[in-house]
Task: structure prediction
Amino acid sequence: MAKKDISYNDAISEIETILEDIENNNVEIDQLSGKVKRVSELLEKCKLKLLNTEQQIEKIFEENNS
Result:
């Protein structure tokens, strides 16, 4: 089953929740590496979404300036 692509806002919200849990010591040491890995994955997804959006906007501007 394919995993649904998470929206940018949902990814940011999940990152904030995980970081808050870590800061408040609500994450057991056995779960910590998994949580950090999840944040890393989410950050990469956000980065890609931002880059794709930037490229799309640049393309629109180039098309309109031609």
Observations:
- The radius of gyration is 17 Å.
- The CA atoms of residues 4 and 60 lie 27 Å apart.
- The mean pLDDT is 93.
- The longest helix spans residues 29-64.
